[in-house]
């Protein structure tokens, strides 16, 4: 209100001065003076309106930059990739008014280039939302073209544009949309697809221009989160065998047991030890021993189910967590593993007792062998020791050991 009063007072003062000048120095009739005065008034008003609009646009732009900075800081507050993706999707919908947002990651899977959808309006998945994934063919579509050329594209009519990949039409159900590449250090990371379901016209550049400023920060946030995930993964994985290490086992087992307890399932734990491994190392050297550990890990991975998780527990000892698996089920799976190891052509196996590399295995199951999570490893270890003591190259259940010792277990 104060600004309007000051502007009006200033305008009146200027116009009064102009009228006095016109009256003194120009020989004009009153009509001409009024016309000239009206023209000047109109000019002043137009200039003031223009200035007001420019100031308003500057304020909006400043606020948008402030919002982007706040969003960026929020993304920097976490390094967990899933949380970063959730923040990105929330803020694009909230701050930029796009309700249809899809985030794609550019990856190579089995030597094939793939645009993996890691976020949609309905879900966020680091592993990818398979139905929305897009293969990168030799002739690139609009999405891969945007990533390759590192520039945004507008698609006014998806069905009429031959460059649009079929999944965008068939699965994403988009009609008019914009593609914004995510580039970090001149390397393509992925792309954003944005659209508005309530848009009654075709999308134009002005609709997504503010998002271009944000896209760079999105790319950096995702890249940093991915690096964090990779670094964290390195601390969880045994460098030699590439299975999870003991630290990860100690973190994982209580979580899995808690889920087992909550859903009233079974969980089996197998402890596995290479028979006479010291003899193998002493006879053939530690490099040969390391190769046995690597190959045995691959046998484990190849013969376990996708839900089973192997760990290198220490030295030549491994652990396997088998979620939702009874004693009997675990015995079948681990016996298969044991037999595969027994027949595998390890180098120098003929120098081992019995002429082959073998393992002994002990199995305990929660909650039937113990209701205490912290005792499960101890129970599986006791079963393993029994397997060693009774001839090696065999699998023993803690249940059998407990029954022989007169201890109570549940069926």
Question: How would you characterize the overall build of this protein?
Answer:
Helix 3 (81-95) packs antiparallel against helix 6. With 411 residues, this protein is of the alpha+beta class. It has twelve helices and eleven strands. The chain is elongated. The model has no long low-confidence stretch (mean pLDDT 82). The protein has a six-stranded antiparallel β-sheet with strand order 3-2-1-6-5-4, with helices on both faces. A five-stranded mixed β-sheet has the order 8-9-7-10-11, with helices on both faces. It starts with a helix and ends in a 7-residue tail after the last helix. It has two domains: 81-233, GAF domain (Beta-Lactamase), CATH 3.30.450; 246-404, 2-Layer Sandwich (Alpha-Beta Plaits). It is 52% helix and 18% strand.
Compose a concise summary of this entry.
By secondary structure, this protein is of the alpha+beta class. It has helices spanning 2-25, 30-76, 81-95, 142-149, 166-170, 205-236, 246-262, 277-284, 286-303, 327-343, 376-389, 398-404; strands spanning 100-109, 112-119, 134-135, 153-155, 177-184, 187-195, 267-274, 309-314, 317-323, 359-366, 395-397.
